[in-house]
Amino acid sequence: MRTIGFWVYVFILIAALFWGYLFNLENDIAVPVVIFGISLPEYSLGVWLLVFCLAGLLAGITISLLPNLRHKRKVSVLLRQNRQLEQEVQLLRSQSLRD
Question: In what residue span(s) does the Lipopolysaccharide assembly protein A domain sit (predicted)?
Fold first, then answer.
């Protein structure tokens, strides 16, 4: 099952690269881009669109990772508390009632 997932991933990656290449070929007009007053060099429209699409993708992944990391930290704290409580319960069960 792991190898099937790997090959599906490879196929999707190759298809995305191919579509990006075709998109770049169809949009070959050189355009200058100005961001916040900073002039960037002239590249084809396809290159700029793919660059900004990739930048948005990376920004989205980064932003979605923050809550995930927070939840993982909370889960680890709760697991630690659970282990401590289980040890306390075992200790209390092992003691006799007349102590």
Answer: 27-89
pLDDT at 99 over 70: no
3-state secondary structure of 28: coil
pLDDT given for residue 72 in this prediction: 95
Eight-class DSSP state of 95: S
C-alpha to C-alpha distance for 69 and 65, rounded to whole angstroms: 6
Strand partners for 44: 30
**What is the tally of helices (H) and strands (E) in the chain?**
2, 2
Determine if the pTM surpasses 0.70: no
Read off the pLDDT of residues 31-85 as tens digits, 9 standing for 90 and up.
Answer: 888 888 888 888 888 888 888 888 998 999 999 999 999 999 999 999 999 999 9
Q: What average pLDDT is seen over the chain?
A: 88
Question: Rounded CA gap, 20 and 51, in Å?
Answer: 10
Provide the residue ranges of all domains of the chain, joining segments of one domain with +: 2-94
